[in-house]
Design goal:
The chain is built from 4 helices and 20 strands. It has 366 residues and is mainly beta. It has 2 domains: 247 residues, Lipoprotein localisation LolA/LolB/LppX (outer membrane lipoprotein receptor (LolB), chain A, Clam), CATH 2.50.20; 95 residues, Copper binding periplasmic protein CusF (OB fold (Dihydrolipoamide Acetyltransferase, E2P)). Strands 8, 9, 10, 11, 12, 13, 14, 15, 16, 17, 18, 19 and 20 form a 13-stranded mixed beta sheet that branches. Strands 2-3-4-7-6 form a 5-stranded mixed β-barrel. The protein is globular. 33% of the residues are buried.
């Protein structure tokens, strides 16, 4: 059972590796009167809301009126380029220089500007490598990747997921498809996974199952058995980093401090192949002998998107079950830091399901 918890939490945490996507609508912006139609605005990104498409820009007007902050709307179908190459909404990070092409109508403050094309013209200022931890990997490329991963701010993630489990001995391959959500919360973070489709031996069928951690309980619900199993992981009011490597019940070598990753894993950069996800780098993490990770995993492979600094594929060998597990996330469909409501991580009401509750043992005398 514990292996199952670790496996599904792996999927959840990798997503917080994530990427961005969002919906769009027009919004009022401020610009000088008399300018209408198609135009291009240049400036520095202050913030970008993936959920609404709102982009706040530090814009310097061509007429020399100084710099002002304006808010524009990035169309969901907008073309995004970096150096002439396709980019994603995940690349619209604070500090980068952009040229925004779109349509505007109206005068004064009563106008709308909808962006149809974004060209990233310059990078954001980057913090020095030692801004994270004092631990340094001997490979400067690996060191830089781990630093960027540690600096990545993740409040919530929602992404489609394709989860594959392969048993080489039984020659069995199982594929689960669904949705994953993660949210930083108090006193502990939460995740939600719902699988909708199941494929085995080439046959796909509808099959609902849920895997939820609500900050205190790990919950599994399965439609085919009409059962819910609740296992208490954290006591009420207890604050614990359940995802930190070497400490929590859901240890993952991602979304972590670089120092923790290098404490439990030997990390190396693997040369790219044609089979790797597009525009990714491949990190192979081998558990160090004598650690808890060495008992659970043979190796963990991360394929990290170069633009968003988030993993798009995670592959691992689990020793206890002798299976290969892979989680894949489509980069163009992942939503990051959208202000997700906590209710989106709740198990749905399943009144006909039988519930089995397994609390933690009563604490002993202090």
């Amino acid at each position: 059972m514990r292996n199952a918890m670790i496996r599904y939490s792996l999927v959840a945490m990798i997503a917080l590796s994530g990427l961005r996507a969002g919906s769009v609508a027009a919004q009022t912006t401020t610009r000088p009167a008399g300018e209408t139609g198609t135009r291009t605005l240049q400036g520095k990104v202050i913030s970008f809301d993936a959920a609404t498409g709102d982009l706040k820009l530090a814009w310097r007007h061509r007429g020399g009126h100084g710099q002002m902050e304006i808010v524009v709307k990035v169309d969901s179908q907008a073309q995004i380029l970096a150096g002439g190459n396709p980019a994603t909404r995940a690349d619209l990070q604070p500090g980068i220089q952009v040229a925004l092409t779109g349509q505007s109508k109206g005068t004064g403050v009563n106008n709308h500007f909808l962006v149809s094309k974004v060209e990233i013209t310059g990078p954001a200022a980057t913090a020095p490598a030692q801004a994270t931890t004092g631990v340094v990997h001997p490979d400067p490329q690996v060191n830089d990747i781990l630093d960027r991963l540690e600096r990545k701010k993740i409040e919530d993630v929602e992404t489609p997921i394709r989860f594959t489990k392969i048993d080489p001995i039984l020659e069995d391959k199982q594929v689960f498809q669904g949705i994953l959500r993660f949210k930083q919360d108090q006193p502990n973070p939460r995740f939600f996974i719902r699988f909708d489709k199941f494929t085995q031996e080439g046959i796909t069928r509808e099959k609902l199952e849920w895997h939820v951690f609500d900050g205190q309980w790990y919950i599994e619900a399965r439609q085919n058995t009409n059962t819910i199993v609740k296992r208490q992981i954290v006591r009420p009011g207890e604050e614990i980093n359940v995802f930190r490597i070497g400490q929590g019940p859901f240890p993952l070598p991602f979304g972590q401090r670089k120092a923790d990753i290098l404490k439990y894993f030997d990390v190396k950069l693997v040369p790219a192949t044609d089979k790797d996800p597009a525009n990714s780098v491949h990190l192979e993490c081998t558990p160090k002998p004598g650690t808890d990770m060495a008992e659970k995993y043979g190796s963990v492979h991360f394929y990290i998107d170069k633009r968003s600094d988030m993993p798009v594929t995670v592959r691992t060998i689990e020793k206890n079950e002798n299976v290969e597990v892979m989680a894949e996330f489509p980069p163009d469909q992942i939503k990051l830091n959208t202000g997700m409501a906590a209710s989106h991580l709740n198990l749905p009401d399943l009144p006909s399901y039988q519930v089995d509750t397994i609390p933690l043992p009563a604490p002993g005398p202090r």
